[in-house]
Amino acid sequence: MPQSTPRKFERDARKLAGPAHLVIGHSKIDSEGCHTTAPIKKGDVVVEYTGPRITIKQADAFYDDHPRTYLFGLTDGKHVIDGEGVAAFINHSCDPNCEADEIKGRVWIIAARDIQAGEELTYDYNLYDGDLDDPSPCSCGADNCRGSMYSEEELVRRAKAFRRRSLRKKKAGRARA
């Protein structure tokens, strides 16, 4: 897999490549988002999530002190895409209109339902890693919002890990007393 030197970036420095009908604008979810100016049919490929591929270790080291990242984890469990282009501005929603699909190492954003012109594009990030104390709060506003960008499975795993950690602390406290 090609390696690239990680970089920090601001919105103005990012390459905003993508289809002409996808634009970046104000988001009700989080700061800026990707919107469509044309209708998109369910099942259509919307855009590819592009950018340099780096190792998770590189990403962790480089973005450790950076609160906002545009990283997309690949199924090999070892690499992420350091997002650039309009797809990097697609926000999370617990009730998304798109879904991400990795096909032969490339990540495609696909319409999960018919999308009207003017709509903000969203997909469920289903986060699966991060510091145990990081809640990764969700601000999508959906009726079915789970309050976090973590997947339901990850939220269950984290709850168990919190309980185990609390029990260890409680036992350690009793042992000292």
CATH architecture: Beta Complex
Top CATH class = Mainly Beta
Helix-strand category: alpha+beta
| Total of DSSP H or I helical runs spanning 4+ residues | 2
Order of helices and strands: EEEEHEEEEEEH
Shape: elongated
- Order of strands side by side in the largest beta sheet? 3-9-8
Into which percent range does the helicity of residues fall?
Answer: 10-25%
Mean pLDDT: 87
What is the CATH superfamily classification? SET domain
Sheet with the most strands, sense and barrel status: 3 strands, antiparallel
Strand content: 15-25%
CATH topology: Beta-clip-like
Total count of strands: 10
- Give the radius of gyration: 18 Å
- For the record, give the distance between the C-alpha atoms at the N and C termini, rounded to a whole number: 53 Å
Question: How do you describe this structure in short?
Answer:
The chain has one domain (11-176): SET domain (Beta-clip-like), CATH 2.170.270. 19% of the residues lie in helices and 23% in strands.
